[in-house]
Amino acid sequence: MTAIVLQARLDSSRLPEKALLPLGGEPLILRVMEALNKVPAVLRILACPEDSTAAFRPLAARAGFAVVPGSKEDVLGRYCHALRVYDIHRVVRATGDNPFVFTDAAAAIFAEASALGADYAGYSGLPLGAGVETVSAQALFRAETESSAAYDREHVCPYLYNNPSLFLLHRPLAPLRWQNGQGPAIRLTVDTQEDYQRAQTLYTALEKRGENRFRGSVIIRMYREIFCDYA
Asked: Which domains does the chain have, with CATH numbers?
């Protein structure tokens, strides 16, 4: 089985409870799940710490995501727990601070990883906050067993891409239409108050684009039009 597994929590130090901040009239985490619903998958899971479950469960239900609580600090362990609960063989890993994920790029890298049988796949060259990673369950279980480093446990995939002799990695440069390109760096993640204010402006503009608002090239174009003078 293949699944999208979205990790999220409430206790962000830089922007507390950012997952529940309104974006276009709905909580930010719901906007993330709406975008991920445009990426083909058999199952969608919100993997969160135990103390976030009550706040997230009704939002996940609205978006069609199952909720699997797990460790707060050991995010790798949280992922592996979700994979075991649902017998998942390949996962698209997404994070709850990226409401502008490029859904067409996500579908493309997943297709490439599946065709190659890659243990890990992710595009390089995407704007920050635009991408996902796709990983085999076997690779994550091996990382869970072999790695005890706090950084590896918190960030899920470093043990894989830092050990290229152990895993089949696919890390191509993204197609040009999805790259950051010339000019100031595009920042789409929501990690600070400034990020959040920018996200509100961008989301309002993208709403007018209908279903096209989930496409990477459209997001890049709108971002450049709005923020090119001070991004």
From this structure: 2-227 (3.90.550.10)
